[in-house]
TrEMBL record:
InterPro entries: Chalcone_isomerase, Chalcone_isomerase_3-sand, Chalcone_isomerase_sf. Gene3D superfamilies: 3.50.70.10. Keywords: Membrane, Transmembrane, Transmembrane helix. This is Chalcone isomerase domain-containing protein. It comes from Thiolapillus brandeum. GO terms for molecular function: intramolecular lyase activity. The keyword Membrane applies.
């Protein structure tokens, strides 16, 4: 489930299986509204107001906490060219974006990370698209090692370039193509599995109730 934390709805938690992380991250992609961005420090992690992708400045659009079995796994933050709250508009725009994950848990294995990405893609894009992107997805997964507390992962998309994976400020590589970037965004947004009630809550106002 997803719920607000205290008086600050910009910080959200979800308890679910690891493979559902893509659907959870949709809360970041649809935007958390300007009023929800008061807290810039989450679980001791200071979130910058801005990020730079391809030489351009992006602004913090939303932040949340990934939780599993009552353990905090990581703090995630989404950066966009301008703050937005319309998921469809964000996904349709071939624009710069960055998703940053600050890991809090002692260790998240590569096996679990790979499984999460595989399940996210399988649930949110067609079989035809999945076959087409198989090589790119494998290249993407190959860049991830086991991750530990204190590690920072940034997924940065730039039109005409693709999705770059940056771990602890070291660029591991780039998966080329707008198709992969768009499909990754769709997986993050969980657009084919997102519940209507979730979409309405995320776009129209603060999340103050359970919605799954």
């Amino acid at each position: 489930m997803i719920k607000g934390l205290g008086d600050d709805d910009s910080v959200l938690r979800k308890k679910t299986s690891f493979g559902a992380l893509m659907r959870w991250l949709s809360i970041l992609l649809v935007g958390l509204l300007p009023a929800m961005l008061a807290a810039k420090t989450v679980e001791g992690v200071k979130l910058p107001d801005q990020a730079s992708v391809d030489g351009k400045v992006l602004v913090l659009n939303g932040a949340g906490i990934r939780e599993k079995f009552f353990f905090d796994i990581y703090v995630a933050a989404l950066y966009l060219p301008v703050k937005a709250s319309d998921a469809s508009q964000i996904l349709q725009a071939d624009q710069l974006w960055q998703l940053t994950m600050h890991f809090l848990y002692s260790e998240v294995s590569k096996k679990k990370l790979d499984k999460g990405w595989d399940e996210g893609f399988a649930k949110n894009i067609s079989i035809t698209e999945l076959v087409k992107l198989k090589k790119g997805l494998q290249q993407f997964k190959d860049m991830f090692p086991d991750l530990q507390k204190g590690d920072e992962v940034a997924l940065a998309y730039a039109p005409g370039k693709g999705v770059s994976v940056i771990i602890n400020e070291v660029e591991k590589g780039t998966v080329a193509g707008a198709d992969f970037g768009r499909s990754l965004a769709e997986c993050v947004a969980g657009c084919r599995t997102r519940h209507r009630k979730f979409e309405e809550s995320a776009v129209r106002g603060p999340l103050k109730r359970n919605i799954w």
